[in-house]
Write a structure and sequence with these properties.
Distance between the termini: 23 Å
Structural class: alpha+beta
Number of helices: 11
Strand order of the largest sheet: 1-2-4-3
Shape: globular
Helix content: 40-55%
């Protein structure tokens, strides 16, 4: 079946004003509104965007999640969140909880297997169990890594950190049934049963800047999948690719992940390189040019935006301003946000998240790995 790559410019979702596109009077009348009126729109939308960022952070905590607990955690009155966003938050929380509950059961089984084989539950031994399952699919004749692999469950994901590049290269050749270096469902063949696990693999040790950036980037792909609204009844191909997703969705998914990671404007050019050739392959020249032109506009807008969104917290604001904005409209929204920050005193630069430090981006550049998509 040939994927449907029609443009999604009319996709309903969470526009820059904080409303569904089909319901937003501001989107319908953009050309008739003054710059100050549009700034007022962004300021109102920023409330919902900040709430969405807080929800993202809230989901990092491995506890039973609910809208009520989220509101209590951040001292938000329920009436401060629009009815539409309340339902959106509930849907996201329910999806997250369902997947996290499944992975909690997987964790219990992996811990049981690890204890039976090694006599402990150390994360490095869990890593050996997962590595052996992917590489050999033979639990009776395990093949263990040369170095240490820490495997840690984080809600609906298992994150694996490799301190030996040879192990990472080896597992990359394993029969995992998924794309590596990204949160995807991986089949683990274990005694008497199989487990489908969302595994995020990092070619590097835990607790360093590179690994931090990689986890942030790859986790955002998972978040995007939960947040982005897809057509009901979506079908998938043999590789798990969404057949009804547009190419705009694919490249936008990467744009959001690089934004969340903290990459600078020039890093976005990697999306036009060989590493991301799948984003453009098979397209008509005219369609590829439109996507490429939009990417150049995004890069150009980012050169200015970097000064106004200098922290990791502020970059999260950018992501949720854009999470439902169609790819072709991203440059327009970025330019609007830049003008808003300049004329309203740059509130994004002082945006704080309770319990998180306001970290300034280093160089904003975290090099992509060879299979980072």
């Amino acid at each position: 079946m040939e994927p449907n790559f029609q443009s999604n410019l009319d996709t309903a979702g969470f526009c820059e004003h904080g409303y569904a596109h089909t319901e937003c009077r501001f989107c319908r009348n953009t050309s008739e509104r003054s710059q100050e009126q549009r700034f007022d729109d962004v300021e109102r939308a920023r409330v919902g965007v900040e709430q969405a960022v807080l929800l993202d952070v809230y989901l990092e905590n491995d506890v039973p999640h609910s809208l009520e607990d989220f509101l209590l955690t951040y001292s938000i009155a329920k009436e401060e969140i629009t009815a539409g966003l309340q339902q959106r938050f509930i849907d996201v929380i329910q999806r997250w909880n369902t997947i996290a509950d499944t992975h909690a059961k997987i964790e219990a089984e992996l811990d049981r297997l690890t204890f039976s084989r090694f006599g402990d539950h150390w994360s490095t031994n869990v890593g050996k169990i997962i590595f052996s399952s992917i590489v050999s699919n033979d639990f009776s004749n395990p093949q263990y890594p040369k170095g240490n692999i820490e495997a840690v469950r984080r809600g609906p994901l298992y994150v694996m950190f490799f301190d030996n590049p040879e192990d990472y290269a080896r597992i990359h050749k394993g029969n995992s049934g998924g794309t590596y270096h990204r949160a995807e469902s991986t089949s683990l063949e274990l005694p008497n049963f199989s487990l489908n696990v969302n595994i995020l693999m990092v070619n590097g040790e835990r607790h360093n800047d590179y690994s931090y950036g990689t986890v942030s980037h790859e986790r955002q792909h998972f978040i995007n999948d939960i947040w982005m609204r897809k057509t009901p009844g979506t079908k998938f191909d043999q590789n798990g690719m969404n057949l009804l997703s547009t190419r705009e969705d694919w490249i936008k998914d990467e744009v959001l992940a690089y934004l969340k990671e903290g990459s600078d404007s020039e890093t976005f050019r990697v999306l036009r390189g060989e590493l991301y050739g799948h984003l453009f392959s098979g397209l008509k020249d005219s369609d590829a040019k439109k996507m490429d032109d939009t990417l150049e506009e995004i890069i150009d807008a980012m050169k200015t935006l970097e000064a106004y969104f200098p922290t990791k917290n502020s970059r999260a604001l950018l992501v949720y301003h854009l999470i439902d904005t169609p790819y072709q409209r991203i440059p327009e929204v970025l330019r609007l946000l830049c003008d808003f920050e300049e004329h309203r005193g740059n509130p994004a630069s002082t945006f704080e998240i309770p319990g998180k430090n306001s970290e300034f981006l280093n160089d904003g550049i975290i090099p992509p790995d060879d299979d980072d998509y």
